[in-house]
Specification:
By secondary structure, this protein is an alpha+beta fold. It has one domain (35-199): Sortase (Sortase, Chain: A). It has three helices and nine strands. The chain has helices at 2-10, 12-54, 57-64; strands at residues 73-79, 84-90, 101-103, 115-120, 140-145, 148-154, 159-161, 176-183, 190-199. α1 (2-10) packs across α2. The longest helix has 43 residues, at 12-54. It is globular and about 80 Å long.
Length: 206
């Protein structure tokens, strides 16, 4: 340690380089800590607009005609067990998922027969799926669409699949809800999946 101190005293460039390196580490740390906060603020900002859009007559008409565009409001997702209350947009592209949660376009519409599949963030953009791992069979999940609402019940404990496993969002003959997100939190090693079945009849045949 003494020799290192002596070396730094006699080599100004070494001191400057060490200071610069420390500054880079500090900026990186601030970035890592600040990024989730920034994305959460962004999602909170757009949530109000998406809520108004979901309630508009234009969105209702688009929903009935199956022409809701990518990034537009599709349904409101409520999971009382974990405090989730978020507007789900159409699409799972990177830009669409800045809303927090997005609907797989190739899957069934909310509250209809088939496999309604929704992806959501766990650590950023409002982190609506932060605690989906806590869901258990029997927990209710509600979807409110422009033309009605329905309730699903979690049918099995959350489980993990590989990111390339798309079988969980495959079509079903019965009204099913599938929620997917990354696991572990902050990483995309695998996907955590929640399966639920509709309680009662579909709210609409749209």
């Amino acid at each position: 340690m003494a020799s290192l101190t002596s070396y730094l005293r006699t080599h100004r460039w070494a001191r400057s380089g060490l200071s610069g390196l420390a500054g880079c580490f500090l900026l990186a740390a601030v970035g890592l800590l600040g990024y989730p906060i920034f994305t959460n603020l962004y999602q909170s900002h757009v949530e109000g607009r998406l809520g108004d859009e979901l309630a508009s007559p234009d969105t209702r008409q688009a929903y009935l005609q199956h022409r809701v565009g990518i990034g537009q409001s599709l349904t409101r997702l409520r999971i009382p067990k974990i405090g989730t209350n978020v507007v789900v947009v159409e699409g799972t592209t990177e830009s669409a998922l800045r809303a927090g949660a997005g609907h797989y376009p190739e899957t069934a519409l909310p509250c209809t027969t088939g496999n309604v599949s929704i992806a959501g963030h766990r650590t950023t953009y409002g982190k609506p799926f932060a605690n989906v791992d806590r869901l258990r069979p029997g927990d209710p999940i509600t979807l409110q669409t422009p033309v009605g609402s329905c309730t699903y019940t979690v049918s099995q404990p959350p489980f993990e699949v590989a990111p390339t496993d798309l079988s969980v969002v495959a079509p079903t003959r019965t009204p099913t809800l599938t929620l997917t997100s990354c696991t572990p939190k902050g990483l995309a090693v695998n996907r955590i999946v929640v399966k639920a079945v509709m309680t009662g009849a579909p709210a609409t045949s749209a």
